[in-house]
Amino acid sequence: MTLMFDSWFLDMLLLLGCTVGVVFLFQRLHIPSSLAYLMVGVLLGPHTAGPVIEQQHIKSAAEFGIVFLLFTIGLSFSLSQLHALRHLVLGLGTAQVALTTVVIGISAWLAGLSPAAAFVVGAVFAQSSTTVISQQLSEQGEEHSRHGRLGVALSVFQDVTTVPLVVAIPVLGQALELGLMDSLTGALGKAVLAFALMFAAGRWLLRPLFHAVAERRSAELFTLTVLLTCLGAASLTHLLGLSMPFGAFLAGMMLSETEFRHQMEATIRPFRDVLLGLFFVGIGMLVDPSAIPAIWHWAVVGALALLGVKTLLVAGLGRWAGIDALTAWRVGLLVAVGGEFGFALLALALGAGIIEEEPAQIVLTAVLFSMIVAPLLIRFNRAIAGALVGEGRSVPPELNSAVSFDEVGETLRDHAIICGYGRIGQSVGHLLEKERIAYVALDLDPSRVREARIAGEPVYYGDSALRDMLEAVGVRTARLVVVSYDDLAAARKVLANVRTLRPELPVMVRTRDEAHVEDLRQAGATEVVPETLEAGLMIASQALLLLDVPLARVMRRVREQRQERYLLLREFFRGDSVFADEPDAAGSDRLRPVLVPPDGGAVGRTLSDLGLDGVVSAALVRQGARVLAPPPDTRLEAGDVIVLFGPPGDLQNAEARLVG
């Protein structure tokens, strides 16, 4: 027992050490991490020189990576969304899988494979990598675009089709047609039963369970409950003779319409990413590098056939379904890549003796080649599709990637994010609603969230201090973040995450008093609102009114007090006549834009070198791009516009230094 433990422990140390080094190197080279894990599997596999890790040590843990992946995907696709996509996803998905299997299968059969082996090759090529597609789309900010949602939905549907294939492939090894039909019929009945059980559990068990757990306000308990739900659903379908990932997908889909889905996704993501890495390591161990020189040309042909056939079929089916040409080609390019479940089907066929070692290596290498090319196809899908439909580069990719997908759910773009939905957060939300400005709110009080959702307000249960939660509610496309709760530590975390994800995004923070105003501004807050200050101003204004002070004078005094404390209220251009009645307007602080001329002395110097005493550099405009609060080491260029803030005398001196 001691020797076995030592062997397992050393294997894990070797695996972790090699994985950290290779993933670090690949990320430095901007290569997807999934390919790094495959490389680790090749290096530590039985087909290469050097240390070898027993596959059994990681096989069981790696399977849970796919389970967690399907759970998070299920969280992204609710029943209502799938119902809205039923004609596109079910029709296109079924046709794509069937036609790809038939076309590739017939080609493999004509190339000399047996009918059963040819069917396996077609089924393997019909799968697409949900991991690669979703990860690359997320990096590009296209996960909410129409082609992105369709592409991920089709790849998820392909994952679901592996359920009958997992049953059919072992039966093919026995070559019993009657047994095949019986098994497929049984699998279909079990899938319907699993769906009914998960639907009932989601409606009457899971949602009340998570409400009760959330009321405890324990992150540890919430994490344990998410793991229990995911693995419990996976074990249910496993007991029914179906795949474990299918059960996890059903559980995620049933929970996707609850207010907990964003927090669940953020909770499960670390487990998913690590275990998915182990899955890719296991796949890499199947690769025999010594066999590639003899089969590489066939593998290249297979990869080209995989990419070409799937792209053409999906694009053609999309056009037939009424999708515009550009979107159809983009979806085709997304799902052209081979998939992880294809590896699982191939391994199953090898174990059943359906396909021999050499053609299996060709198919495996072809799928790997397609996954290596996939990031490039997905990254430049707009340019390639535009060239295919004759539009070239008329529309920049970054503009097209923002196409909304109203048909399938909510659109998170140009909205406000409210962190905390207490009395202040609700006041902000209601005013935004009256101004018809979209917003989404996060709160950790399950009762408050439930009542707000019943009232139709866009409120979700989640910890806004987590980076994953901010990304889930669209911080990359938001216009404003409002931190409305009085929690200094959480506010600092929100500011740190927002400044990492979106340095230029305005963030307004509430604090109880003025003690932490400067601290929060240094942490990255655009504006800090002290609650006691506002309460004091309201009390003082009411007192002055009761003392018969004219309303106009009271409002002016309140505005003066606010301008002394709020940077945003002081940063305005004085040309507007609304400030003409203020007696101190001529000498108060103001904004002034200054153009840096090509022959000025400021060109090539930093802001700190210029010694702009008495003024603040509020913004820098360079080639149409606006940067708020440029750092002191910013080096100026000809044509830059510096927006300065300060008193008139200091502004005049600073402008003289800038223009030379």
Report on this model:
With 660 residues, the chain is α/β, with parallel strands linked by helices. It has helices at residues 2-28, 33-44, 56-76, 79-84, 86-110, 115-126, 130-140, 146-174, 177-215, 219-239, 244-255, 261-284, 292-320, 325-335, 340-352, 357-379, 381-388, 397-400, 423-434, 446-454, 467-472, 488-501, 517-522, 531-546, 551-565, 567-570, 607-610, 648-659, and strands at residues 416-419, 439-443, 459-461, 480-483, 507-511, 527-530, 590-595, 616-622, 625-628, 641-646. It has three domains: 2-388, Na+/H+ antiporter like fold, CATH 1.20.1530.20; 412-570, NAD(P)-binding Rossmann-like Domain (Rossmann fold, 3-Layer(aba) Sandwich); 587-659, Regulator of K+ conductance, C-terminal domain (Alpha-Beta Plaits, 2-Layer Sandwich), CATH 3.30.70.1450. It contains 28 helices and ten strands. The strands form two sheets. The protein has a six-stranded parallel β-sheet with strand order 3-2-1-4-5-6, sandwiched between helices. A four-stranded antiparallel β-sheet has the order 7-10-8-9, with helices on one face. Helix 7 runs parallel beside helix 16 (357-379), helix 10 (219-239) packs across helix 11 and helix 13 packs across helix 16. The radius of gyration is 30 Å and the shape is globular.
